[in-house]
Amino acid sequence: MVNLEWYRTFKAIYKTGTLTGAADSLFISQPGVSLHLSSLEAYVGYKLFDRTGRKMIPTERGKVLFNAVSEPIGRLEDVEKNFQKSTEKLTPTISVGMCFETFQTTLEQYVSTLPFNLIISFGQYPEMLDQLDKGILDLIITPKKGVSPNIEHEAFSSEQIILVGGKNVDTESFQEVVRTKGAEHIEEWLKQEKWYGTTGDMEHLFQFWIMNFGHKPNFRPNYIVPNLNSIIRCLKGGTGLAVVPDFLCKNEIENGDLKLIWEGEKKLENTLYFGCRKKTNYQSEIDHIKGLFRKVMSKKDHVAQL
């Protein structure tokens, strides 16, 4: 089924003569414009433009299609503008991507207070970066920076990846091994314990293990649960180990519900970034969400220092 946005993008390319010009006029990325055009060309079954350098020259079929859709698309755009004018207050909708655990521990508590509509999307970081570049998402929270020139990244916090365990874990025997024996014995001690993992990304565990032991873990966690917050709740039962970001469990460690077992021989830290397109219609809404994240992170840092 055809997407009407493909026609709007086609019209913008026809009018501006370039993919960049169309992207600027529609406030989406150039890859997003290219995707819309290729999707429309695949749908109609023929080329709509010849690419000459940076210039997009409409083909004869492209001219015919433009003549057919230009007026109807223009009328739809007029209806959209008139509808917006007749509405007392147009409430914008912001699409934000992040991992599930980050949402639960930061933005979730503020959703009901937001003065605009919000769509939260969960996914893997490469996928979210791609969706941001294509205009599907307006803001992402990510520990990884993309390479698109259309996206800007702003560092706002950091997370340390740590080994935590239930309050009944025998940390004294572990610390004795750390003090008196080498990495091989440390690894063997850890492998004897019960481990928690998630159904999705195991990257934290892999990174931590590679940094400290030089290879990926050669065991499978005993318990696979839906997400990192589930791991934290399970560990409060008293036993087991897991590798998690510190900001997810600072309160539990402070309250004695969990133990910080080991930070590793070398600390594993990730920088957290806001990612957004350089051109957007929703700058004030994005700034509002950024402010909420900074507020939450500053509170967690204050708790950690007490």
From TrEMBL:
Stretches assigned to coiled coil: none
Keywords associated with the record: DNA-binding, Transcription, Transcription regulation
Signal sequence, start to end: none
Source organism, top-level taxon: Bacteria
A Pfam family: LysR_substrate
InterPro entries listed in its UniProt record: LysR_HTH_N, LysR_subst-bd, WH-like_DNA-bd_sf, WH_DNA-bd_sf
Record-annotated HTH lysR-type domain positions: 2-59
Alphabetized SUPFAM superfamilies for the sequence: Periplasmic binding protein-like II, Winged helix' DNA-binding domain
GO molecular function: DNA-binding transcription factor activity; transcription cis-regulatory region binding
The keyword DNA-binding is annotated on this UniProt entry: yes
PANTHER family: HTH-TYPE TRANSCRIPTIONAL REGULATOR, HTH-TYPE TRANSCRIPTIONAL REGULATOR GLTR
Record-stated family: Belongs to the LysR transcriptional regulatory family.
Name of the protein: DNA-binding transcriptional regulator, LysR family
